[in-house]
Amino acid sequence: MKQQHENKRGFSLVEALIAMAIIAFVIVTILGGFSQQQVATRKTASKNTALILAEMRLEELLKFTAAQLVAAGTTQVTTDYIISRNNTFEYYNDDQNDMDEYRRTTRLQGDLLGDVATVQVMVEYGRAKTGDYSYRVVLGTRRSL
């Protein structure tokens, strides 16, 4: 008896379809990871910007003495809205209902003797249209004579 050997060269249609499905799954998984990384990078950049805005405001105020900042026994609260566009900041006194904006609240409080002022700067980042400020940065210090 003679055994006949079939010549099996190449892939069958089923094998090619399975290989294509595996490759498609790998590509979709990799692209999903890239999009998640982009979202995480955007969030981190927004948090860093909020921190920079808080630090900038605090530095503006630290050049003044307590008496220059606020009168004894009083509290001042100011809020401004900041929109970051094209690597610049646009400052507004009222809510612009922009999609992404920073709300910066500065609180100055003087003690009864007028020799110490408490400075607190809070920057919140979020979507103004929905009123959802997803995270905040709060920096504070005390300033004396």
TL;DR?
This protein is α+β, with helices and mostly antiparallel strands.
What structural category arises from helix and sheet content? Answer: alpha+beta
**Low-confidence sequence ranges:** none
How many domains?
Answer: 1
Helicity level: 25-40%
Describe this structure in words.
The protein is α+β, with helices and mostly antiparallel strands and 145 residues long. The protein has helices spanning 13-61, 66-69; strands at 75-85, 88-92, 101-110, 116-127, 132-144. It has one domain. It contains two helices and five strands. A five-stranded antiparallel β-sheet has the order 2-1-3-4-5. A hairpin with a 4-residue loop joins strand 4 and strand 5. It is rod-shaped, with a radius of gyration of 29 Å. The model has no long low-confidence stretch (mean pLDDT 84).
Task: Pick out its properties.
alpha+beta, 145 residues, 2 helices, five-stranded antiparallel β-sheet, rod-shaped
SSE topology sketch:
Blueprint: H1 13-61, H2 66-69, E1 75-85, E2 88-92, E3 101-110, E4 116-127, E5 132-144
Antiparallel strand pairs: 1-2, 1-3, 3-4, 4-5
